[in-house]
What we know:
Blueprint: H1 2-16, H2 20-37, E1 41-42, E2 47-48, H3 67-75, H4 87-103, E3 111-114, E4 117-120, H5 156-176
Antiparallel strand pairs: 1-2, 3-4
Amino acid sequence: xxxxxxxxxxxxxxxxxxxxxxxxxxxxxxxxxxxxxxxxxxxxxxxxxxxxxxxxxxxxxxxxxxxxxxxxxxxxxxxxxxxxxxxxxxxxxxxxxxxxxxxxxxxxxxxxxxxxxxxxxxxxxxxxxxxxxxxxxxxxxxxxxxxxxxxxxxxxxxxxxxxxxxxxxxxxxxxxxxxxx
Length: 181
């Protein structure tokens, strides 16, 4: 996704500086990458795969990985290919949230008291389902990390509302596990 965005932006820049030959070359490279990115959609799992080929030292049979969301946030362009509001990304969010909701015992708590008010809190998510690293050792279920907010919706208005709601709920989860010091 990053390479694709770089080629698109490189092509746009080349056209801006009046180098149409370089612009066309970059846009062509982006189209090749775009063709390959469609391989990352798994219709059988209803999610965007984090990779199509794994390093032998990393096992991710569930194919659930928060890097997909980071790629959408940092590398997507406004063409609906794996953007944060694309149907395929939303399916991926729903599958991922459901997976992490049942994976971590911390998610059994669905409310927290923040400023003397009980409010619903979001699902704590980790890097990927099979992650075993928790900073201290490599023999457990890993842990949730704060770079992975969760949301889910079916229309643009619902997406916006859920983004704000999920963001608030996620911050409530962080606040409920943070000391006041």
